[in-house]
Structure formats: structure tokens, C-alpha cells
Write a structure and sequence with these properties.
This protein is of the alpha+beta class. Helix content is about 15%, strand content about 30%. The chain has 5 helices and 11 strands. The longest helix has 8 residues.
Length: about 200
């Protein structure tokens, strides 16, 4: 089935699609609950706190004034679709980590999003140079259904780790399961190992 659905791909493209995945050209919309708003409210802010030296809060304008990075990468959803060569713009997480200075005890990060959604990742994952606080996709502001005004982008993990409608990052001294992990999804979520579920 996967081979049939991926017919017509170049050899290079085939090597970029993990096991059990198929390529899509559109951008499927999947999330828990409804879109929280069509435009960010006036009091929207983004916070970082916990095991860091410099807890900080930014308004949307302040966040978008930070140094910007552009990333082109492939993304993979646990529901089996992969989208190749996606283009994003936002704040580099490695750069941000340099500003907020996680403590020596920090090991994990819990992303907090509107609607109570959370996603957890090891701190070391956020040090990859393709991880962003993303506010643009394909040269345009994120659309509401894709997380406007801000989403976490963690391309090397299944896409549920890339939390939409992101409002904060909490730095922790131990792991704390996110929303889908509490419902039995894999904690590590590596597409190349097909780590979809914990059982």
C-alpha cells in the first residue's frame, strides 16, 4: 500500500519518507478540539519559565522582532502522511536557549498551548538547528488551523510534538508526559523507528 501510494517519487524522495508513511501534497489539518481564534487576541503572549536563568515573556510583536531563521524540512504525521520540503520561518530554538540559559538540572521541556494541550520533548531535542518557534509557513503567516500565531516545529519527531497555538515552554528537571503521551502515544515519537504508540 505504501509503495503504491508513493509511486512516482524520485529515489531521493523515497529515502526521505519513513516506514509506514506516504507523501502528500496538501497540508492535512489535525488537532484536538477547535481552532481557538482566527486572530491572536490583543493580550497574546509567549512565556518561558522553569529551570532557566532568564524567565521571559514576549508579546507577539516582540517575538517577531527577535532574530529570524528560515528552515526547509520534511514533516511526518503519526496518521501516516509525510510532507516534503516544507518552508518555515521563526525563532531558532538553539538561539533562544542561548538567551534564556537552561540550568544544569534542566532535562526536559513541556510545550503549553491554548486549550490545555501539551507536548513533551527532551531538552537535547530542542538543540537541533531545525527546531523553531514558527510563525510563518511557505512565506505566509501561519493559518489559524495550522497554529496561528505560533507553533513549535520539531521536524525529527512525529508532528504531534510540534504543538499548535503555542503559548509557553516550561523547562523541567524530569520528563512530564504531554497530552497524547498520556493517551498511549509514544514518548519518543521517532518516525524512522515507527514509534507511534507506547504499546
Amino acid at each position: 500500500m505504501g509503495i503504491f501510494r508513493n509511486r512516482g517519487l524520485t529515489d531521493d524522495e523515497k529515502t526521505r519518507i519513513p516506514p509506514g508513511q506516504h507523501r502528500v501534497e496538501d497540508f492535512p489539518v489535525l488537532h484536538v478540539g477547535s481552532v481557538p481564534y482566527e486572530a491572536a487576541p490583543d493580550d497574546w503572549d509567549f512565556k518561558v519559565w522553569g529551570e532557566i536563568e532568564n524567565p521571559t515573556r514576549w508579546s507577539l510583536n516582540e517575538l517577531r522582532a527577535l532574530p529570524a531563521t528560515e528552515v526547509t524540512t520534511d514533516i511526518h504525521c503519526v496518521t501516516s502522511w509525510s510532507k516534503l520540503d516544507t518552508s518555515w520561518k521563526g525563532v531558532s530554538l538553539p538561539w533562544l536557549l542561548g538567551q534564556i540559559q537552561p540550568t544544569a538540572d534542566a532535562t526536559h521541556v513541556l510545550a503549553h498551548a491554548d486549550g490545555g494541550y501539551t507536548a513533551n520533548v527532551p531538552l537535547e531535542v530542542l538543540q537541533d538547528d531545525d527546531v523553531l518557534l514558527a510563525y510563518e509557513f511557505d512565506g505566509q503567516d501561519l493559518e489559524p488551523e495550522h497554529g496561528q500565531p505560533l507553533r513549535l516545529l520539531v521536524p525529527k519527531k512525529y508532528f504531534w510534538k510540534s504543538a499548535k497555538w503555542l503559548r509557553g515552554l516550561e523547562f523541567l528537571t524530569e520528563d512530564r508526559l504531554g497530552y497524547w503521551e498520556r493517551y498511549g502515544y509514544s514518548n519518543s515519537a521517532d518516525p524512522w523507528k515507527e514509534e507511534r504508540y507506547a504499546f
